[in-house]
């Protein structure tokens, strides 16, 4: 996992400095921070920083002087840098609002949790970084993000954060100046004073203020620019959740599991033949075979010689489950559930009061459907339904991926006691009652209770499969 993230960070550092040079934020003759400072900001090893800088040097953007300093070589006119910045953000105009919305729904609650977990030493590091001569809104925000992310230890959330940063490049638009922005000065003072007295809420308030300020400045810049420039082809946002390569058979397995949860398939049903499934799903027969093999090992399907494949919930093949790809999936499921735990409360408190009677009936129906594993299925179906309230492409993609990872561990829940767990019934009652009396705090409590229940069982599964 570490290797994947270091690779991601290498590209992130390269793109970050490349963009900031081309944005004109770093000009010819300017010094870059030291390797140690860059390593601190991005929380990476010195070698990762060196690799990124060497790539920038090969493109003649900078000159790295061993052991001394790194200087910007690239020379451009103010018109050129303005044009580059305008083109960069105009090409992302459509997605920027949507990504900010996702960032507010998912990343901000995670940063909030991360901020609460900061040690006093972390707060002193933020204080020190903020007082550096070359510190600005972009570098301080970046440093805070990394330290908060680091305290969460959730690689999936980190991967999402990297992709969002690569998309935005922590915008530093020409129209913004720390010297003239009263808002910036106010948040900056709040950050320093909060770090000094270890007030984590104050630190988060200042950090959130920086993000709002950056968003507003960028939005104004885009609005102003698009009146005078033609819109280039739009670049959509994508989350590369699978860092290695797309895992077709895992996506397919999640789809089949989903079909069972929504009632399109039941236990003891026979599946289509490999060829028919391959045609229906638009994938190769070998991908279908691998998918069925994976689900068979997980105790979800039984293959009957000469007859076909039947959905049957049985004991997983624990030896085969200990393979690293399946272990990786289970860890990703654990991290997805954790992300839902951090973010659900905010979403519910924001959305609940706007629910129509029709939507409340829909949610009650989701809770009432006869289920193999009520806790698991209720969480999946409620998240899926809430997704329809924010149906922007990035939102659908990100929540879709989180659900995909979670669905992949569903078979492991089928053999657990058939829900003798009274706490689950209690949480489901709480959700129903919350819908009857339209109480969002109660709904959030019930929902988070179900998530906690899933987390508890996932930890037990992880212990079972650790080699």
SSE inventory with pairings:
Elements: H1 2-22, H2 35-42, H3 46-58, E1 62-65, E2 69-72, H4 78-90, H5 93-116, H6 120-130, H7 137-152, H8 155-168, H9 182-196, H10 200-226, H11 248-261, H12 274-281, H13 285-297, E3 301-304, E4 308-311, H14 318-321, H15 324-351, H16 357-368, H17 374-387, H18 393-407, H19 410-414, H20 422-437, H21 440-465
Antiparallel strand pairs: 1-2, 3-4
Helix pairs in contact: 1-3, 1-8, 2-3, 5-7, 5-8, 5-10, 5-15, 5-18, 6-7, 6-9, 9-10, 11-13, 11-18, 12-13, 15-18, 15-21, 16-20, 17-18, 17-21, 20-21
Top keywords for this entry?
467 residues; mainly alpha; two-stranded antiparallel ribbon; 3% strand; disordered N terminus
Structural notes for this entry:
The chain is globular. The strands form two sheets. Strands 1-2 form a two-stranded antiparallel sheet. Mean pLDDT is 89; it is low at 1-5. Helix 9 packs antiparallel against helix 10. With 467 residues, it is mostly helical. It has helices at 2-22, 35-42, 46-58, 78-90, 93-116, 120-130, 137-152, 155-168, 182-196, 200-226, 248-261, 274-281, 285-297, 318-321, 324-351, 357-368, 374-387, 393-407, 410-414, 422-437, 440-465, and strands spanning 62-65, 69-72, 301-304, 308-311. It is 68% helix and 3% strand. It is built from 21 helices and four strands. Strand 3 and strand 4 form a beta hairpin.
